[in-house]
Structure formats: C-alpha cells, structure tokens
Specification:
about 190 residues, 8-stranded mixed β-sheet, 6-stranded parallel β-sheet, about 10% helix
C-alpha cells in the first residue's frame, strides 16, 4: 500500500491533520476542509471519504469502506476500527414511496433523512456492515460482519445480524491495554 507523504498530506487542505497519519494514495477523499484526523490514524486503499468527518486518534478505516459524512457528519472517537467494505451513511432517501428518490430528482419532490453518526471509543465494525443515519455506537460496541445497524447500541456489547441484536457483553480488558499503550507512547515522545 502506498501512502501520501507527510508533506503531501499537509498540502491537501485538511481542516486538521495530526501526527503519524497514513492515508493511501488510492483512497478517494472529498471535502478536505471538513475533515479532521487525529494522531496515529490510517485510511486504506479504495475508501471513499466525504463530507463532515472527525477522526480521533488510532482510528483505522480499512480498504473499500464508504464514509459518507454529508452535512451532519460522522465522528470516529479514539481507537475505533471499521473493517473491509463497511458503509456509513448520514443521509438517506425515504424509501416508503411517499416521496420520490435519488440524486437526479429536485429536492421539492423528495424527503431525505439527515442525521449524524457517532462511533464512540473502542468501537469495531465487522466487514460488510452498514450503519444508517442517526446511529450512535456506544463505547466498546462490537458489530459482527455483514450486519445492518439501524438503531443506536448500548455500551460494551457485541451485536450481530440484519438488523443487529445484542448477542452478549464485550470484555473490557482492552482498557488496561490502552493505559499501557498510552503510557509507553508518552515515554517515547
């Protein structure tokens, strides 16, 4: 995977860019002036990133993800991961038939949904999953592969399915590892 250099990243016009950022030169990124990226984060090949996006520290967006922040925005808090092919939407047409759909139709004939999406700390979303507008994945949420998330989750749960259901609690051992990691990172600066 080829990444932009630090100098190239600075010249792209991000709203904010932290240290030790890796962004594939094969990612398609739009609206640089609305995108903030925290330290040690990474965006891989063939991702499409657009709209209002705030990425915390140590966030990994793996290959072929769609992150459509639109006007309302998507927030990735620290230590979140979305696996291959995850799609996150902050905007959707009304599919009920009450109004017309698609981008070629003037707004007066449509009723679109616009809502922010938040992935809180230590959230991981499995390959091929879809997250719809207005969803908040609470801290420690784990979403299994090929899941559809229509509603917000409760913290420290493992969710699977279409639509997702809480399967069981998720362990919190990783919080101790986070403390160790941050302490060691502080020593290395």
């Amino acid at each position: 995977m080829a990444y932009y250099t630090e100098e190239e990243l600075k010249n792209l016009g991000f709203k904010y860019i932290g240290k030790n950022i890796k962004i594939s030169d094969k990612a398609s990124i739009y609206n640089f002036d609305q995108i903030e990226i925290g330290d040690n984060s990474r965006i891989d090949d063939f991702c499409v990133i657009s709209g209002k996006i705030k990425i915390g520290r140590n966030v990994h967006i793996t290959p072929t993800c769609l992150v459509a922040g639109g006007k309302k925005g998507i927030i990735f808090e620290d230590f979140t991961t979305i696996a291959y092919g995850v799609q996150i939407f902050t905007q959707s047409d009304d599919y009920s038939g009450k109004t017309m759909c698609n981008s070629t139709v003037p707004k007066k004939y449509k009723e679109e949904i616009f809502k922010e999406v938040i992935l809180k700390r230590h959230t991981i979303v499995g390959a091929g999953s879809i997250i719809m507008p207005g969803v908040i994945l609470e801290e420690g949420t784990s979403v299994g592969a090929m899941s559809l998330v229509l509603k917000s989750t409760e913290s420290w749960g493992i969710y699977v399915g279409n639509p997702v259901k809480r399967l069981k609690d998720r362990k919190k051992d990783l919080l101790e590892l986070e403390k160790e990691y941050l302490a060691s990172e502080g020593k290395n600066q």
